[in-house]
Amino acid sequence: MGASAHAGGCTCGDCPHGARTGHRRAVAEFLLKREEFASGLGLPAAVAHSASASRQWVSDELTQSAALVAERSRVEGEAWLGRLWLRTAVVVWAAVVTLLLVQSLTAIGAGWTTARTAGLIAALLVAVALTGAGYLHRARGGALAPVIGEDNRLSTSRAVAVSWVLFVVFAILVLVGRLAAASDHRERDALIAGLELARGAGIVTVLAVVCGIAVLVRRVVGLRVLSQRLQKVRAHRPRAADLLTDDSGRGSFTDVQYVVICTVALAFAAVRLARRPDQLPDLPWGLALLVLVSAATYVAGKYAEGGRPVILSVVRAREAGDLDAPIRNGDDIEIRGAGFVPPGAQTADRLSRMVVRIGPVHVHVPLVPVTGGFDNPTDTVLTVPVPADVEPGQTEVQVITAAGVETNRYVIEVSAD
Question: Any stretches that span the bilayer, and where are they (predicted)?
Answer without folding.
Answer: 90-112, 118-138, 159-181, 201-221, 253-271, 283-301
